[in-house]
Design goal:
Helix content: 10-25%
Shape: globular
CATH architecture: Roll
Radius of gyration: 14 Å
CATH class: Alpha Beta
Domain Thioesterase: 56-113
Number of helices: 2
Protein name: Thioesterase family protein
InterPro entries: HotDog_dom_sf, Thioestr_dom
Distance between the termini: 27 Å
CATH topology: Thiol Ester Dehydrase, Chain A
């Protein structure tokens, strides 16, 4: 499993814990993962609340960057193709452009083989560490 840093009591940790995020495979350019839409992530009509999609994709985009220091979201575009329901979500994430300080990342969520959510992030490598 990949190692990555996170703020111990922040939203990132709660999303990872509640969703049971599991990194299956990771290299310098891409990763595959699995997470689970849990009961508490469902809205009143039984589908995953949209900001959960965004939050999970944002965390995954930061993980795939795997740079020294803190990486933060600069901008994002999200496309909701189909609803996510309670259960497993398969993830593909990959770096499109790896610049000096900005990194473009695409994150795709699939459920039962269907593309449900797509996001494109520009991540900024701050070159600062947690100790600074």
């Amino acid at each position: 499993m990949a190692s990555y840093r996170r703020i111990d009591d922040g939203l990132d940790l709660r999303l990872i814990k509640d969703s049971k995020l599991e990194i299956i495979e990771q290299n310098k350019e891409r990763l595959t993962a699995r997470w689970n839409v849990w009961d508490g992530a469902l809205n009143s009509i039984g589908t995953c609340q949209g900001m959960i999609h965004f939050g999970m994709a944002d965390v995954i985009a930061a993980i795939v960057c795997d740079r020294e220091g803190i990486v933060v979201t600069k901008d994002a575009s999200c496309f909701y193709h189909k609803p996510l329901y309670e259960g497993d979500v398969e993830v593909e994430a990959f770096i499109g452009k790896n610049g000096k300080t900005n990194i473009t990342v695409e994150v795709l969520f699939y459920q039962k083989g269907a593309l449900c959510f797509q996001s494109i992030f520009t991540m900024h490598a701050t070159r600062k560490t947690y100790n600074e």
